C-alpha cells in the first residue's frame, strides 16, 4: 500500500476497526469525538475531522493523518505502518455505517495493552546494541551533538526494552532503536536555544538529522536556535513559538526530501511569507539524499 492510498482510508473507519470509543453526545456528523486511545480519560479529547480526514488528540497535543496515528499507536515507522495497513480489511468507501450510528466497541487486546512506562535513564549511551545502531546510522557517539542522546529503558507488559532517547518540550522522550520509533510520554517538539543572541534558527524533522548536520559540518553548535519537530504534526506548535519568540530570526529549513518533507517545508514557507519572516530552504545541501542522515551514512561508507 502506498501513502496516497493509505490517506484515502477514512480515519473513522480505522477508529471503528481498532475499537475506539465514540462519545455520541459530543459528536456531530463530520465532527467526531472519541476517548483517547493513548490514555484513560473521562472526557473525550480525541477528535477526528471526517471531511478533512485528520485527527488531533488535545490531551497529547499531537495530530495528523492516518499514517501518523498508526505510527503513534503501534510505535512504528511509516513503512511499517503502511505494511500493517495493507494487511487490514480497510479501504475508502468500505464502511457503510457511519460510526456515530454504531455502539461503542470494547477495545481490542492491542488497544488495551499496558501503557509503556519509563524504567530508568542512563545519561550516556553505552549499550552495545545502541552503539551498533548509531554506527549503522553513521553517528559518531563521541562526535558533535552526541551529548543530546540518552539511554532510555522502558517497560510494557512486564517486558523491559531500551533505546536512544531525546527529551522533548513537554518532558516526553523520542525513542529510537533498530526496531522501534515512538514517543514515550507526551508528544512535542524540542527547542535547543542558543546561548547567544543569534539571528538564525534551524528546523529539523528528527534528532538524528540534527546530529548528522553537526557531524557533517552543515551547521555549528550554538550558532543558531534549533527546533526538532519530532513529527510533522508538531508544525503548528513550532510556528506559534517562532511567531511569538523567534520572528526576527532567519528560519533555515533542513527537512527531508520526500513527499512529507516537501509538504511540510511548503507549509512552513507559506506561513513565513504571510508573517514576513525570513527563511531559507536548505535541502539543496543534500538534494541527492532523502535526508541529512542518509547523506552522513553515504559519507561514512565512502570514508
Task: Please characterize this protein's 3D structure.
This protein is of the alpha+beta class and 303 residues long. α3 (66-74) crosses α4 and α6 (207-216) packs across α9 (292-302). The two termini are 36 Å apart. β6 and β7 form a beta hairpin. The radius of gyration is 20 Å and the shape is globular. The protein contains nine helices and 14 strands.
Features:
303 residues; alpha+beta; five-stranded antiparallel sheet; five-stranded mixed sheet; 9 helices; 14 strands; 29% helix; 21% strand; globular
Order of H and E elements: HHEEEEHHEHEEEEEEHEHEHEH
Based on CA atoms alone, the radius of gyration comes out at 20 Å
Shape: globular
What is the number of strand segments?
Answer: 14
User: Number of DSSP helices?
Assistant: 9
Q: What portion of the residues fall into strands of 2 or more residues?
A: 15-25%
- Given helix and strand content, the structural type is alpha+beta
Beginning-to-end CA distance, first to last residue: 36 Å
Proportion of residues in helical segments: 25-40%
Write out the strand line-up for the largest beta sheet, numbering strands in chain order.
5-6-7-8-9
Q: What value does the average pLDDT take?
A: 88
The low-confidence runs, each spanning 5 or more residues with pLDDT under 50, are 94-113
Major β-sheet profile: 5 strands, antiparallel
Amino acid at each position: 500500500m502506498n501513502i496516497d492510498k493509505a490517506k484515502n482510508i477514512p480515519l473513522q473507519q480505522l477508529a471503528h476497526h481498532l475499537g475506539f470509543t465514540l462519545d455520541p453526545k459530543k459528536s456531530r456528523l463530520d465532527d467526531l469525538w472519541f476517548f483517547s486511545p493513548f490514555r484513560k480519560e473521562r472526557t473525550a479529547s480525541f477528535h477526528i475531522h471526517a471531511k478533512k480526514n485528520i485527527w488531533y488528540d488535545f490531551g497529547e497535543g499531537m495530530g495528523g493523518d492516518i499514517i501518523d496515528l498508526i505510527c503513534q499507536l503501534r510505535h512504528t515507522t511509516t513503512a511499517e505502518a503502511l505494511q500493517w495497513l495493507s494487511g487490514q480489511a480497510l479501504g475508502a468507501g468500505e464502511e457503510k455505517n457511519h460510526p456515530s450510528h454504531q455502539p461503542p466497541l470494547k477495545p481490542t487486546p492491542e488497544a488495551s495493552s499496558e501503557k509503556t512506562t519509563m524504567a530508568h535513564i542512563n545519561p550516556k549511551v553505552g549499550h552495545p546494541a545502541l552503539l551498533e545502531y548509531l554506527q549503522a546510522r553513521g553517528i559518531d557517539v563521541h562526535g558533535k551533538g552526541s551529548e543530546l542522546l540518552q539511554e532510555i529503558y522502558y517497560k510494557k507488559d512486564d517486558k523491559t526494552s531500551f533505546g536512544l532517547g531525546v527529551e522533548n518540550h513537554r518532558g516526553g522522550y523520542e525513542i529510537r532503536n533498530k526496531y522501534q520509533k515512538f514517543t514515550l510520554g507526551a508528544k512535542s517538539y524540542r527547542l535547543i536555544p542558543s546561548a547567544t543572541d543569534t539571528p538564525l534558527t534551524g528546523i529539523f524533522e528528527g534528532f538524528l538529522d540534527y546530529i548528522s548536520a553537526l557531524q557533517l559540518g552543515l551547521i555549528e553548535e550554538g550558532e543558531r536556535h534549533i527546533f526538532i519537530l519530532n513529527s510533522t504534526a508538531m508544525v503548528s506548535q513550532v510556528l506559534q513559538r517562532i511567531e511569538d519568540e523567534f520572528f526576527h530570526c532567519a528560519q533555515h529549513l533542513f527537512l527531508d526530501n520526500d513527499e512529507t518533507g516537501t509538504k511540510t517545508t511548503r507549509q512552513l514557507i507559506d506561513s513565513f511569507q504571510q508573517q514576513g519572516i525570513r527563511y531559507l530552504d536548505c535541502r539543496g545541501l543534500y538534494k541527492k539524499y532523502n535526508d541529512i542522515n542518509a547523506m552522513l551514512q553515504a559519507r561514512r561508507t565512502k570514508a
